[in-house]
Design brief:
With about 190 residues, the chain is mainly alpha-helical. The chain has a two-stranded antiparallel ribbon. The longest helix has about 40 residues. It starts with a helix and ends with a helix.
């Protein structure tokens, strides 16, 4: 199974567990996910398409259980971090689809160093296109972009540090010059 397919299943599991009030209920619901029947739907062009099919090997099931369980355990922390960057939006006001996508992506960006941040953002936007409304991809992208450090931010900070050091050096030299002048004046007065 591809990483994209695993990510989609993880998203679906996170979406379903959000309807339960305790972490234990949510984790019990995760087990039900693997027994859910295949679902299909008629696409806009009239063709039949499979919407949901859980044909997952035991190794991938274990991976999904562990990953989803870790995310559920970190939901409060992930939501807090999301609230800090989502200008004008709190996680309690977000749609469940967008929230599940954001939780998965923020987990990948902050707690899983095997996935590049930009890949997490791109995959989250793709999930939003597939499962969310018209505004979902832009919303998800906008929130997640705030988790990526600006390129060049470090370089911008370093010249500021150098500038401070240069000013301190100039000030120290000026103080040294003033001290020398004071010593010269005192010697003249003593003569």
């Amino acid at each position: 199974m591809t990483r994209r397919e695993l990510r989609e299943h993880c998203f679906k599991m996170l979406f379903s567990v959000d309807f339960y009030t305790t972490g234990e209920e949510a984790k019990a619901q995760m087990e039900q996910y693997f027994q859910s029947p295949e679902e299909d739907d008629t696409a806009s062009d009239g063709t039949l398409q499979v919407v949901h099919k859980v044909d997952i090997g035991e190794k991938d099931q274990e991976y999904l259980r562990e990953r989803t369980s870790r995310i559920v355990d970190l939901v409060d922390e992930i939501d807090k971090k999301t609230d800090e960057v989502a200008a004008g939006w709190k996680t309690k006001r977000m749609g469940k689809v967008e929230l599940a996508i954001l939780r998965l992506a923020v987990y990948e960006m902050l707690y899983d160093n095997t996935i590049p941040e930009k890949v997490s953002v791109n995959e989250a936007v793709e999930l939003a296109k597939k499962f969310g409304g018209n505004e979902s991809p832009a919303f998800v992208n906008g929130v997640l972009a705030k988790f990526i450090p600006k390129e060049g931010a470090k370089e911008e900070a370093e010249p500021a540090k150098e500038e401070i050091e240069a000013k301190e050096e100039i000030k120290a030299k000026e103080e040294t010059e003033e001290a020398k002048e004071t010593v010269k004046e005192e010697k003249k007065e003593q003569e």
